[in-house]
């Protein structure tokens, strides 16, 4: 428990003021009324249960931060106090100060914004986390996260609109602000509040306006839409700003006052537009290529499997001839290998890949857990179908059909939540039906082309089959193209970070995007042409015309899918809080990594990395340890 000094200054001490019953969002401020069983549970902080003489009388009321933007001088004392209190690494900050500005000299105005976790009423990080590392406590309404449970997927950093959870690329896990609950228990305000020089930060029971303050607003310029999570922070800003304010970091976002919404909304800042470039290497070596490999392989295999099974079950010609041919079993094993490759890449993308099993912990809330469960069921059914296809009797046929049914159910469930986990309000570019169109289009196009290539290699393809598969691919590609057109029209000038994503798409990756569109157009024309002409051409033209055309279609479709999915992850812009000139400035972070400044720990920039098994070290450990030591090592790795 935090040791309170006898001479604590008055500004660091919590007041006992609590007069209101509801928040501005309509939620109860009293989180555990008298008689609630929650009050009987011990509240253990840092392994220490506080005594009754230390109990805060407002322990079970929702607390929150109060920020007076007029008083913040940008000294960063709050950041320093937070780092000292929590012992964070130099590249991690639970609280940071960002900057927005407007006007020109001599009428220049600047607004500093100090922001940490807002301990929201509806914490999307808690619902999104697949490992259940988050808990919202009745004590103070604090949203706390346990880094020891986290396996480093980073999904909470995707869904949080305020940059609160911090994914440490060195440690391989997430951590965040804990509201300094150990200080609250002894009647003290959080460390950041106590350290504030300008009296800009305050803390207490939510909706209780501090002394000498007159506002309790829900938003401030640069602050994302508060309706996403109902954050427990209130603002005062009497200083008048221009209707348009800009960030000082490299993110091309500006904020415009929307009179109808009563707050500033984000727009693309074309004055900061980067030059039109290729950036292919940057695109194809990004941190998110593991997600590209997983989503493409999983969707292609799911699409191919569904086409094969349904055509076989319902004798849908001409695809049924593949399900009844000798290439059916080998093709299933190829699909097993592709799906296993995608799952392996996704797992090794985790900060702690040996704790992959924790992904099933939050099936009640997390779309990630549900996606993992569905894809796992699909993979199990796929392996079962492949195994039982090696035998030819009535019993194994029944088992094979049961495995296929499991795989199809898993594909439907996992595929749906693979889509749902990207419908994130904090990432407006993804939060559009185009995401579903892209995923379904990939399943149809790559799935049908996978079957067609296998049929050609296995010698069971004919003109009718090529035409049917090309038609399915045409539908998938057309669906994807339609999604791109509609999304661009709706988003490229939208009042959200989605417009900034399209700015990056057409500038930073502009030439690559043009290549992708060209490939998509060629694939649509090829697939449509083959679908309409292949049945008329007949089998005599199979080897001379249809075979090379279909193989070209497969290559072009795969290339455009790879580029499109890589762009999907590369251009997304979250609803971030503004950064400063150096700290939390993407431009400076990239510069620091390019020139070597990131090698200096005091700079506060770390390289992206993954924690992977060292095979040589593992084999050495196996050879040189006793069985008892091996068992202890196994328990340490897989139980944490």
Question: How would you characterize the overall build of this protein?
Answer:
By secondary structure, the protein is α+β, with helices and mostly antiparallel strands. The protein folds into 3 domains: about 10-245, Alpha-Beta Plaits; about 280-570, Formate dehydrogenase/DMSO reductase fold (Up-down Bundle), CATH 1.20.1630; about 615-640, no CATH class. It is built from 19 helices and 12 strands. The protein has helices spanning about 75-85, 125-130, 155-160, 180-185, 190-195, 280-285, 290-315, 320-325, 330-350, 365-390, 395-420, 435-460, 465-490, 495-505, 510-535, 540-570, 585-595, 615-625, 625-640; strands spanning about 65-70, 95-100, 110-115, 135, 145, 165-170, 175, 200-205, 235, 245, 255-260, 265-270. The strands form 4 sheets. A 5-stranded antiparallel beta sheet has the order 3-2-10-11-12. A 3-stranded mixed beta sheet has the order 8-1-9. It is globular. The model has no long low-confidence stretch (mean pLDDT about 95).
Task: Give the helix/strand layout.
Blueprint (H helix, E strand, L loop, with lengths): L62 E6 L8 H10 L9 E7 L6 E7 L8 H5 L5 E3 L6 E3 L9 H5 L6 E3 L4 E3 L5 H5 L5 H5 L5 E5 L27 E4 L7 E4 L5 E6 L4 E6 L11 H5 L4 H25 L6 H4 L4 H21 L18 H22 L5 H27 L13 H25 L4 H29 L5 H10 L3 H28 L4 H29 L15 H10 L19 H10 L2 H13 L1
Parallel strand pairs: 1-9
Antiparallel strand pairs: 1-8, 2-3, 2-10, 4-5, 6-7, 10-11, 11-12
Helix pairs in contact: 7-9, 7-11, 7-12, 7-16, 9-10, 10-11, 12-13, 12-16, 13-15, 13-16, 15-16
